[in-house]
Design goal:
With 243 residues, this protein is an all-alpha fold. It has one domain (3-233). The chain contains 10 helices and 2 strands, in the order αααααβαβαααα. A two-stranded antiparallel ribbon has the order 1-2. Helix 5 packs across helix 7 (139-150). It is globular, with a radius of gyration of 19 Å. The N and C termini lie far apart (56 Å). The chain binds 2-acetamido-2-deoxy-beta-D-glucopyranose (2 copies). One 2-acetamido-2-deoxy-beta-D-glucopyranose is lined by residues 32-33, 48, 51.
Amino acid sequence: MSLAQVMRFISLPILTMMARAFTSEFNLLAHTEPEWKGAALQYREIVDFLNRSRISYAISADPVVSRPRVLQFRDLSTDPTAYPDYFVDGCWRQRMGYVGVRDYASYKKMWVLDQWRYFAHIMIMCISSRKAGKDAMGHDLAATMVGLSLNRGYNFSRYVFKALNDQINTAERFRFLLYPRFVQLLIDDALPNLPATWERLQVKRVDKRVFAQFLKPDSVEPNPEHTALFGHLINEAYVAPDD
Ligand SMILES: *[C@@H]1O[C@H](CO)[C@@H](O)[C@H](O)[C@H]1NC(C)=O
Ligand SMILES: *[C@@H]1O[C@H](CO)[C@@H](O)[C@H](O)[C@H]1NC(C)=O
């Protein structure tokens, strides 16, 4: 029996309802082409960077509109899968203006400002493997921001596949539909002729209101520092120092 035949046996409304209830609220589509006016103007550098970065495809591929495509991150075989803790933490504090304490190896986006906060938000909403919590990111995701800023390699595929693998191996009651967009891209790639006979989940986008929200002064203690973007974020030709 083919998958398409199996799908016909399962009640569509029930399946769709279940899928909605268990689908991650993350792995959203990012803004790569915002209208450059109002608050969005202040984020121009980081949005431009994200649009030309190696995660650009991953944050903008919409499997409902453009299928089938491959999920790809332009990883190189020499890319590391992790960076030392002191290196990530040093970069966050010295270059990104991070002031927060680190509890359980998580970084909170409220402790960086300006374009950094938007950058962190996009990483959490589009790339993270979280089920809940839109304010914090783990060490691995914090490391990817360092790698992207310095134009250093990082094995993004591993980040995604490790999370999917952990999800498959976790107890049933903890499971949810992780990475709905990425999984759809993988399915479309592996099974290009699968008939789309059931209702597709709506692909969600990052809310445009964040552009204005992040500009509002907030009263967190201690106060994060304003630091300009640097390295590869503002210079396409930037090469990471060896050290
Ligand atoms: C994003 O990149 C594409 C090419 O990859 C380009 O056509 C488009 O103009 C860029 N958008 C912005 C907002 O820079
Ligand atoms: C990324 O890491 C995974 C797991 O360690 C490995 O199998 C894969 O080959 C790596 N990707 C690249 C392009 O090196």
